[in-house]
Amino acid sequence: MIAAGDPVPEFTLKRGDGSDFTAADLEGQTTVLVFYPFAFSPVCTDQLNLYEEVLDDFKAQGATLYGVSCDATWSQTAFAQQLGVTIEQLSDFEPKGEVSRAFGAYHPGGFPQRALVIIGPDKVVRWSYQADSPSDLPGANLIFDALAA
Amino acid sequence: MSDLGSAPIPEPSKEDHVRGPNGGRTLIVYADFECPFCAALDVRLRAFTADRVVFRHFPVRSSHPRAWPAACAAEAAGLQGRFWEMHDALFADPARLEDPHLWDRARRLELDLARFDHDRRSDPVRDRVKRDFRSGVRGGVVTTPAIFELGDDGSVVQLGRDEFSPAPGPGSTSES
């Protein structure tokens, strides 16, 4: 998996409105990419709900969170709306998993690993984490630890 | 530095809601009143009558929009000395957590309704719920219910929900 100190690769993900989200969008902000396996799955639901609850704290740390999965933008939008989650969703749908692979966060089962990547305003990875299993949910405290490091 | 970085689950303090006898296990439960798994756990925990239970709030609004108002209602009842009665009344019917349902519970508990309604919307009550929630986040709580056991040495270890099965096995502290 991509590691601290690595520059982020060039990539293109799709926003909910169909526009591109690229590495250039990382410039000037601290970004947390939350790779998750499947929209509407139980653990991903808990994960986004939890992070949403402390979103103001992430903002206070100057961090912007994005959810990344291989689901289509329509599915991600429906997922976020159903949960009432405002964390922006980015789709790695086509070519499927290309960005997840580029970050070393693609599960052989055909979906993103449950992984977290913090990227600095200079587009260099500050911290990354991959859960031991897609069913493991990393606590928000781990992200706050990394942001404070 | 954020105050949501990792920290141990706090040991019980005089500000916690605690019930059960001394001498057995001390269980610290993070839960929300709109969570069906929490309600089920609460039923199961009642069979473990030798244990002392510490209740802490862990409401997550996006999945359970009435969890926060319910938590605040329990705290407001607590200010009138009826936390556990409201706790039990909320878990007894977690599908009915709208304001009229909360008022109805308050009436049945013979609370001062005006005070209850003021308190449940007050900053101190919100801060109280928030404090519990944030202590859980710092301790790595990710979903509800989350159960921890306090060790004799002050250590806190997370337990699995399976430890509180409907039919406790031999050697458990259950009296059922």
Report on this structure.
The complex is a heterodimer of chains A (149) and B (176). With 149 residues, chain A is α/β, with parallel strands linked by helices. Chain A has a single domain, classed as Glutaredoxin, CATH 3.40.30.10. Chain A contains 5 helices and 9 strands, in the order βββααβαβαββββα. In chain A, the strands form 3 sheets. A 5-stranded mixed β-sheet of chain A has the order 5-4-3-8-9. A two-stranded antiparallel sheet of chain A has the order 1-2. In chain A, a hairpin with a 5-residue loop joins strand 1 and strand 2. Chain A is globular. The model of chain A has no long low-confidence stretch (mean pLDDT 97). Chain B is α+β, with helices and mostly antiparallel strands and 176 residues long. Chain B has a single domain, classed as Glutaredoxin, CATH 3.40.30. Chain B has a 5-stranded mixed β-sheet. In chain B, strand 4 and strand 5 form a beta hairpin. In chain B, helix 2 packs antiparallel against helix 3, helix 2 crosses helix 5 and helix 2 packs across helix 6.
